[in-house]
Amino acid sequence: MPPRSRLIGLGALLLLLVISPPFLSSYLLTLLTQALIYGILAMSLDLLLGYTGLPSLGHAAYLGVGAYSVGVLTTRYGAGFWFTLAVGVLVAMVVAAVFGLVALRATGVYFLMITLALGMVIWGLAHRWVSMTQGDNGISRIPRPDLGLPWSLANPLPFYYFALGGFLLALWILWVIVQSPFGQSLVGIRESESRMRTLGYDVWLHKYIGFVIAGTIGGLAGVLWAYYNGFVSPADVELATSVEALLMVALGGRATLLGPAVGAAAIVFLKNLVSVYTHRWLLILGAVYIGTIVYAPEGIAGAVSELQSKRGGRAGRPQAKAEA
Amino acid sequence: MTDPTPPALSLSDLSKTFGGLRAVDGVMLQVEAGERRAIIGPNGAGKTTLFNLISGELPPTEGRITLFGRDVTRLPPHRRAARGLARTYQITNLFPRLTVLENCLLAVQALTSVKLHLHRALHRYPALFERARAVLEAVGLTGKEGETVRNLSHGEQRQLEIALALAGAPRLLLLDEPTAGLSPGESHLMTTLLKRLDPSITILVIEHDMDVAFELAKRVTVLHFGKVIADGLGEEVKANPLVQEIYLGAQ
User: Fold this and answer.
1) Residues B127, B161: one domain?
2) What is the pLDDT of residue B249?
3) How many domains does chain B have?
4) pLDDT tens, B110-133?
């Protein structure tokens, strides 16, 4: 069970996410919406990288197929929201189910290389399958979904709450999974695959299920992303997007779910801030990555809990001081 | 012999080669159900490789492995575990960043269908916790449940090794140098713990320490350069001139 302080922190954060938006400028609101959507992507990747120890470098693929599904279905067939959502998530799931068969034959750095290559396959499709994806031009004029609510999702505030709903759904699903016996088995695999095998786990099956779940939820992020942007292009599926997702997890703190969501927010805000001054975003990204690895290997979440335990340790150890 | 119960483990002509090295070379071995058997041999004799073949972590180059009368030569490790096989490791192989209780829970749920449940929190399965606590008590780790494993002493980690192997209620237990790296006092405690295990569990133990080997098992198999060179009761093996020359004499 999570400690009480963490639950209180979670509650406060969620409350802030619900109450504050009406008082924010529309620019901030847009950034926050982006952060929520990328937060879903980062949390789903955390299931692989943080919990299972599988460093996927192709996670943008699932965002991509989810987003392109929306693009094609809405602009070409005028499909409604629920149908589009179902198809987008399902396509991501199928792609993850196929990619998982290939990628999980390898471990470690080879797994990283294979997922990178598979991610490039999706990028290549987005780029070259012009009849479906319109190639480099991308698919534009994706309409915002119409849910039959009194508030139009074309406005930033309602769409923010819409994205928040998707975020909370993803958070809840992943939270339940990581607390479950299955979720614990993923952590066991991260810690010692060989021991898990001899204990009686079909390690491949557990990794595979985790891989498909992560891809499916990545697809949800893609669906929201396409609706948010109204546009999807190969740039969304680039390697850089996969790298950013990895960095969000590392920066926020692996195996904490909310950490990667915070990491996503940090990267989104930083990226928009930096773009005012320079086009060399990847340079900054690289610097942040190195800084994280060197100074905060456990990410923001790790740094916060270390700070907490230091403060708690000081208050609770007056005798040790006297001895010293 | 018309014994109706099949042997717990039977190896026939089992070999494993790594390039030009025959790490395990034509091993024939039979362990009866309920038996306690020690495997001794100098460093590099192929003892751990033999265990890896039996547990399924390495595929054999040749030969057959039979577990309780069923051929398991081609089964992956988890399927062998499901048939009642469990093992410990010479080099401690635990889940270092998890707590003692979490380690034990992973072992307890390993052979149940609960391991694939992803809709309910683990703490909603009190039966697993009960079993895990009972196993920890059996190896003397009660009171350490909340400790992170990497903070345990080496001796406690060795105890947890045994706990993980026992959690699935195995019928055949492979112990790879359970006293490795332990002080004489800890080693004695470990031996006592192992001698107290349910006599119905068949145990195959690799031991470097001769005294421990002879204390745990009546029958001893000696491995040298991948081959079985002697097999018999403790005293016979000790008296075997070949064994004295290459193993006991070498000390």
Assistant:
1) yes
2) 58
3) 2
4) 999 999 999 999 999 999 999 999
Long-range contacts of B225-230 (CB under 8 A, 24+ apart): B225/B22, B225/B25, B225/B44, B225/B45, B225/B46, B226/B15, B226/B16, B226/B22, B226/B23, B226/B24, B226/B25, B226/B27, B226/B45, B226/B46, B226/B49, B227/B25, B227/B26, B227/B27, B228/B27, B228/B28, B228/B29
Pair (B114, B233) in one structural domain: no
Please check whether residue A107 touches B, CB under 8 A: no
Give yes or no: residues B36 and B149 share one domain. no
CB contact at 8 A, A234 and A240: no
Q: Which chain A positions have a beta carbon within 8 Å of B96's beta carbon? A: 191-192
Residues from chain B that touch A194, judged by Cβ atoms under 8 A, are 57, 93
Q: Give residue-wise pLDDT tens across range A132-177.
A: 999 999 999 999 998 888 888 989 999 999 999 999 999 999 999 9
Same-domain pairing of B216 and B121:
no
Run of H or E residues at A130: helix A130-133
ipTM exceeds 0.95: no
Among B109, B134, B169, identify where a domain stops. Answer: B169
| Domain limits, chain A | 27-250
Based on the fold, state whether residues B77 and B175 are members of the same structural domain. yes
**Closest CB to A180 among B87, B95, B121:** B121
- Which residues form the domain of B43? 1-84+170-251
Q: Are strands A231-232 and A139-140 parallel, antiparallel or unpaired?
A: antiparallel
Q: Which of B186, B227, B233, B230 is nearest to B213 (CA)?
A: B233
- Same domain? For B67 and B190 the reply is yes
Question: Both B178 and B70 in a single domain?
Answer: yes
Q: Where are the alpha helices (DSSP H) in A147-298?
A: 156-179, 181-191, 193-199, 203-229, 239-252, 258-274, 281-295
